[in-house]
Amino acid sequence: MPTYDWLFDSTGLRDWCDGEGGSSAPMSMADLMSQAGNAPDTSVWQTPFPSMDALNDACASFPQARDLTRGLERGFLDIKDSLSVVLDPLTQPLSWALEAALWLFQTTPWFVMIPVLALIVAVISRSARLTGLILAAFGGLAFINYYDYAMQTLAIITVCALIAVLFGVPVGIAMSRSDRLERIMIPVLDMLQTLPPFVYLIPLIFLFSVTEPKLYGIAVILYAIVPVVRLTNLGIRMVDPEVIEAADAFGMTRRQKLYGVQIPLALPNIMAGVNQTIMMSLAMVVIASMVSAPGLGVLVLRGIRNLELGVGLVAGFGIVLLAVVLDRSTKAALARVNAVQKG
Amino acid sequence: MTDAKISIRNLFKIFGEAPQEALAHAKAGMHKAELLEAHRHVLGLRDINVDMQEGEITVIMGLSGSGKSTLIRHLNRLIEPTAGEVVVNGENILHYGDARLRRLRRSNMSMVFQKFALLPHRSVLENVATPMIVEGAKKNDYETEAAKWLDRVGLQGQGAQYPHQLSGGMQQRVGIARALTSNSDIMLMDEAFSALDPLIRTDMQDLLLELQRELRKTIVFITHDLDEALKLADHLVILKDGEVVQQGEPQHILMHPGDPYIVDFIADINRARVLRAGTVMTKTTDPVPVDSEVSANATLEEVITQGGGNADLTFRVMNRDRQVGVLSMRDVLAALVATEGVKRTEAPAA
C-alpha cells in the first residue's frame, strides 16, 4: 500500500530514499504472502494503521517498527557493561546483607528463632494474643516442614524492607520539603507502582548475574519502596500548618522542626507506609523466585511448573500466614503510635 | 513617635503572582476590590501605620478577610511584607537575617494561636517548656520554670497530661503558659479566645487582664469580637479590607466613630456597659453643686444604678480622690444613643 509515497514524491526526497542502500530489513510475513501470490483480499474495514512499516515501504531509509525494540535492546546491551562497572560495587553490600541474613535466619536453630520472633512481636505490640499467633504460625509451618522456606522468605523481606525504609523515608522527607522534587518524583513513583512486577526483572537479568542475591534484592526494593516514600511525603505535608507556624514562631531551626515536630506528627503515616512496604516486598519476593530468590516462592513456582497442586497451595497458604503475621505486628506498632498522639 | 515598642510603617502586603507590579497600583490609590478585579491580586494590607506602646494591650479588630491575622504575622515575620517597615525596639526587623530573626522569635516575641497549636506528642509540661527546649535547656532546668507558669495559669499538677486530654479552655491556658515561659516582653495573640465557649472566653479575658496587671507585657491581640476588643484594649485598631479605618483609645472611638463602617459596627453593643463616666463627663475642676460622686472608671450602667433611676441628677466625677469633671444624667442618657458626626448607613433590606 503506497501510504506514504506521496510524501517523498512531493517533497523531492525520493532520491534520498532510494539512494540509501535500499531495504535491508528482513521480509515481513505480509510481504512473503504477497510474493507467494495469494495476498488476502482486504476490505476497507481491515485497512491497517499506517505504521512505521508502511513508512519503510515508501522509503527504505526509515526503519521498520521491529527495529525500535531491537534498537532499545542494542542500546541497553551497549551501555550494560559500563553500567555494571558502576552498579556492581554500589549494590554489592546488598548481596552481602542478603547472604548474611539468609545465613543467620537458617543457621539459628528453630528453638531459638521462634521464641526470639515472638519476643520481638511481644515488645512492639504488647499483645498476648498476637504473640500467641506468631508462635502458632511458625510452629505450624515448622510442623509441616516448611520452616526453612519461611525463614528464607522472612530473611529476604527483613533486609529488603529495612533498606526500602532506610532510603524511602529520607526521600519522602526531601519530597515534602521541595515542591519541585515532588513534581519530579511522583511520575517516577507512579511508574514504579504500575510497572508489572515481572518487568522489573528483565533489565536486571541483563545487568546482574542470576546467581547473585542482589538481583532479586533490587527488584524487591524498587517495588516495595513506593508506599513508604509516598506516605512519608504525605504525612509531613499533612502536619497541621498552625503547629508548624507555632514551631516557627518560637524560633525553631529547620532541624528542630523536622525532628521535633514534623517527623513525630507524621509518624502514623510513615508507619502505615512501612506496613505497606513490608506487604509489597512479600508480594515481590514470590515473583522474584523466578530469578533464584529462595523461600516459599520457589515452592509456588514448583507447583506451577510441575503441576504439583498440593505443594503450590500449601506454600501459598504459608505466604498468607506470613503476611498476616507481618501485617498484624506492624499494625499493632502503628496503633501504639496513634494512641500516644491522637487528637 | 519613635519611642513606641513596635512601630509599623507604610506596610503593604499583596498576594499574587507579581506583587511588586500590583504594589504600584495600590500605592496609587487602588483598594482591595478594584485590585482584585483589575489585576487579579489580593490586597492583604494597604498602607498600615500603627504604633504599639510598651506595656499596653493593642487590639486589632476586624471581620474575617480584613487582614488582621496577616498583620500580626508580619510582626514576627511569619509572613514577609511586600513593602514597608516593622520596627521593634528601634530596629527594623525586615533587615534581620535568619539567625537574628530566630533570636527575636525566641527571646523577644511569643505567640498564642487560635487553635492552640500545641504539640500533640509532647506532655503539657513539655509543651509549656517549648521555648526553653528550643534554646537547648536541660530537663532539670525547664521543669521548674514550666511548672511555675503552669501554676500561674491555673493548671496545677496537669503537667503529665497530654494536650488531647484537656478541654479547649485548658489547652489555651497551656498555650498562654507556653508564651509566658519564653519570658519575652511582647506577646502576640491571634484570635486566642475565639475558639472557646463564651463563659470560658470571659474567664480567659479576666486571666489575661490579671496577668497583664502583674507582668506589663506589650500585647498585640487580634479579635473579631467588639466586646472582647473593648474589654481588653488600651489602643484599638479597626481594620477593614486591609486598611486601618480608625485607631485610638476605645472610649474615644465609641464616642467619635470616624467612619460609617464603625458606626455600623458599634451599633449593636451595650453602650451603658462599655462607656465610662470619665469619657462622657464635662471636664472641670470647679466646685459645683452635685448630688453624688462617681469614679471616673465607673461604667454608665453603674452610674444609672447609683442614680436609682432618677433622671435629673448631677454627679461629681472623681479620679483618685480628686474631682476631674461633672456628669449630669442628661449627658449619660445622650451618650447612650448618640453617635455624633457620622450618619449610620442604611442597612440593606434583608
From TrEMBL, chain A:
It comes from Alloyangia mangrovi. The chain crosses the membrane at residues 100-123, 130-147, 153-176, 188-209, 215-232, 278-301, 307-326. The keyword Signal does not apply. Belongs to the binding-protein-dependent transport system permease family. GO terms for biological process: choline transport; glycine betaine transport. It is found in: Cell membrane. It comes from the Bacteria. Gene3D superfamilies: MetI-like (1.10.3720.10). Its main location: membrane. Residues 150-330 form the ABC transmembrane type-1 domain. This is ABC transporter permease subunit. One of its GO terms (cellular component) is ATP-binding cassette (ABC) transporter complex. Pfam families: BPD_transp_1. One of its GO terms (molecular function) is carnitine transmembrane transporter activity. It is a multi-pass membrane protein.
TrEMBL record, chain B:
Its EC number is 7.6.2.9. One of its GO terms (biological process) is response to osmotic stress. One of its GO terms (molecular function) is ATP binding. It catalyses: a quaternary ammonium(out) + ATP + H2O = a quaternary ammonium(in) + ADP + phosphate + H(+). It comes from Alloyangia mangrovi. It holds the Pfam family ABC_tran. Keywords: ATP-binding, Nucleotide-binding, Transport. It is an enzyme of class 7 (translocase). The keyword ATP-binding applies. The complex is probably composed of two ATP-binding proteins (TmoW), two transmembrane proteins (TmoV) and a solute-binding protein (TmoX). Belongs to the ABC transporter superfamily. This is Trimethylamine N-oxide transport system ATP-binding protein TmoW.
